[in-house]
Amino acid sequence: MKITREERQLYKFLDCVNKIFGKTDERTYVAGLLDKLYFYAPGYCGVYESLENIDRLIDAYDFDKCIYQLKQLPNKSFVLDKVEGDALSNARTRDNIVSYVEGRMDDSWVDEMDKHYTKKIAKIASVTGKWISDDDVGYLKMFDIFNVHNGYDYLRFETEDDLSKISLIFTAFAVVPNENDSSQMKIEAYVENREESFEEPPEEFEDEEYGDPMA
Known about the structure:
This protein is an alpha+beta fold.
């Protein structure tokens, strides 16, 4: 299965997945299931869901129920090749990936942002209590506008248009730095400074007139 730039949302999703895969030496996976394409890598996972558009006479993608190998061609197009091998083992792996991702798809909405917002890391930390690295925030560029969902050990970023719905999930160490991570000190300092500098709105001001100090 070949995917070109003309297939805009799926191409952007695979481009992001390919970048994530490129930063690890551990096993990575892409799995198809009907109209959905899942991926898994240590610290990251997600799903692309293809939607049928009756008005534009566009059918949803029909992905094979299999494990795929993701490749990028010299012309920057992507290819999804079926992984051959033990059918039972591949099916078990696919089911595990699907279960892992779907288990992090609960409705835990906390905020909406767009890709041009310049303080994403600080705002995400403020509304979720979790933070992401400077490198990882670049993956959010594939979303024009996205919803932020806060899970117990993950952050999920979701966008939807008339042809697709995409979720990108940062898990475990991708959102919880270790004690030596300087980003933790940055966020703690940011939150402390915000709490010290925050002033209650004057009584004569309505909330909507005072505005959001984080806007």
